[in-house]
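User: Predict the full complex structure for these chains.
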Amino acid sequence: MPGLRDHKPFVIEQFGGLWARGDSESAPSDHFIQADNVKYFHSGVETRDPLDKYSLTSIGHVRRVYDYVMQNGQSLLVLTDGGNIYHVIPQNPALHITKKVPTPRLPAQVVHGPILTIPAMEDFGFVAINGKAYITPFKSYLNAQGLYYELGIQNEFLYVYKGDGTPARKAAGNPPVGTPLVAALGAAGKTDIGVHLIAVVYETDSGYVTALGPAVFANLNFSGVNKINVSNIPVSPNTFVKKRHLVSTMAITDYNGDQTGYQFFFIPGGNIENNTATTHTVEYFDSDLLSDASHLIDNFSEIPAGVNLNTYHSRLVIVGEYGTTETLTGLPTGITDNRSLARLSMPGEPEAFNKIDGLIIAPLDGNPLTNVQEFRDVLYLFKRSRTYGYSDNRDEPATWQEEVVDQGVGCPVHGIATVLDTGGANIDFLLIADSSGLLVFNGIYSRPELSWKIEDYWLALDHNGYRYIQIVNDSINKKIWITLPTAGPIWPSDERRVVLFADYGDGLNAKDIMWARWIFDALITSVCLIETHMLILGSAVQNQGIYYINNIKPVLCDSYYGGDLKIPDPTIRTAFLGE
Amino acid sequence: MAKGAALSEKSSGENISHFAAIRVRVVGSGYLQMKAYSLDDVKSKVLVPLTMQTTNRIEPTRLVNFMEQRASFELKTTVFGERFKINRIILYMKEIYTSYPGS
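Assistant: Here is the predicted structure of the two-chain assembly.
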């Protein structure tokens, strides 16, 4: 390349993104020592896409936003100040913004709610199962050393929301109560002979089957030649109870009076498809009793709240509970909560949590469980700086073997990247935010960290504010966004206005990933992706509300509910170059 | 030959260079503000902004005329609605002294 009056050209055409490691003079020539409000394309850098309002009016101070995948589409669950959760459903025409088919989105939406209000709720964990949203409220606590940690709210519970705008309710449900169940010999029929106990369970609209009730089961000596008339069947006062089922023991010899000491089974033909009838007639042999119902006796009727929810082998997993009056009873001296406890539901029954053996106790090192994730058939539990693995042995969770994966790396409560619109593992790695940086986890933690180039920046973040970190991974466009806590003095701006952006289109490794800071005129509290490509941002305090990144907006400005503002000075600054 | 980081690309002596011009393959709208900085930002020089167009067959060049041992270049937009898209940044520089007098 010819020079300019003996001046040699120095060409920078492959941009490596932000470098914030060591002194600014250590930045390679193809990196930037400042990269604000820019994004990358192959061999180039440009102004980031602008922010736009997601709805016509602000929903308020947003604390957390999740993409809620319903059976019939995607929507948002939004937590605002005051502990209110709203359900925001985009309307037709469907959200549709791609570069190839740029159809403008209409801001018409349905906002349900609040579907749940818990004033003490500062944050919540969420997972969608079969279109239903499971929600666990949690908050931050402060220990004597001044460190924040998160646990489910004391004496609060797991909630289930059907997605139809009706308020969320406590998951699971109370067993039947009332006066004793009555059984009597009826018309001619065929049964086995002997003493049988009969009880009732409720089935809720979310498919949960309660424990057995009422307090006194029916007790009848079957004749063998009569049908059994069951009466005084309890009727639930709760409208979410949709069905009831009769359960029975096999014939008992020498009944000892302990009615829950026997194995119960669902009676074929014992289903009552309503919540109104008080009588039902059944006829069955003991050999017809195949489907066990005994485990229902030990299930929680109200499931203690935790900080995080996920699924593993069709089980719902909840971690980081403070506890309830029921679960905090009888704890050893000095133990005030259940911070190292993970509870797992029965397979396929996300609200059936066995009190006895449906749990895992992680090592009691004083730090609470923060996160849970399935990966390659292993259940991983995380603490702030610990990672443990558990494998399903086809027995109850309490018997699962523990494997210590890493005693130096863990993650905060939102520190595992959500991939597109689902959990963290629909691609073959996890992205995990640890104190040391953003790490790739593929069974082991890969080093160096993905954030190696910006290590100084990462380490300057307030470690006591890691609860503010939330990560989304757009695995289609190979981009990552991370909300941040405040940063130390070397980064003077309030990093809670910053979303850390990474483009790994050239490779998911420390060398090829390209970083930038996206700065907004709002305190960004939460990020998620909806419809796999639309980045949603929740903000609080100034310009609060729900926003999205609009890549087809004709005017390049950030549109807030308070008005349009310029994108804060998109800037790149080269490394220090010289001879 | 110009070098980047002293650490990763090694230094060839930290001699004093004359940064003559900057050429940028850029499209967009508005003005691309540019500024050159010395080490530790002790000295700086504001360059004449580049007027950006949505399409452009010319890669514009701006005189820099900045003499330092190393220099960093800032490119940014500052006005509502402006945008840039940069493919290449070309710096023209020449080693002219080995040291400052007396140093």
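The longest strand of chain B covers residues 16-37.
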